[in-house]
Design brief:
By secondary structure, the chain is mostly beta strands. Helices cover about 0% and strands about 50% of the residues. It has a six-stranded antiparallel barrel with strand order 1-2-3-6-5-4.
Length: about 110
């Protein structure tokens, strides 16, 4: 399978952080792992399939590596974002990879 073409305008930075996500305006949060970030969005792995266009709230719980060694310095601690895509991953604790784009204030 050929990977999709790169559509990001900003440089992505690797990251290894525990985050939690919730559907917008819901109280129940779910664990996830943030794997890379850019100024406009990120990539996370989670246990649930998420529909494209869904609005999520993502909160940082803990960076798992020293901040100077990865993109954790760029991670937003609490952000609203839109699911751009979701793909099934082979094996692992988090079977879905999700690309998100941050919502910016108007």
């Amino acid at each position: 399978m050929v990977p999709p073409p790169e559509k990001r305008r900003e440089r992505r930075r690797p990251c290894n952080a525990e985050v939690e996500w919730a559907f917008f305006n819901r109280l129940e949060f779910h664990p996830a792992r943030l794997r890379n970030v850019s100024a406009g969005g990120g990539y996370l792995e989670c246990a649930q399939r998420l529909a494209q266009g869904t609005t999520l709230q993502i909160r940082l719980r803990e960076c798992l590596e020293p901040a100077e060694d990865n993109g954790c310095l760029s991670v937003r601690t609490n952000v609203l974002c839109e699911v751009k895509w979701c793909r099934e991953l082979p094996g692992g604790a988090f079977p879905f990879g999700v690309g998100v784009r941050y919502h910016f204030p108007v």
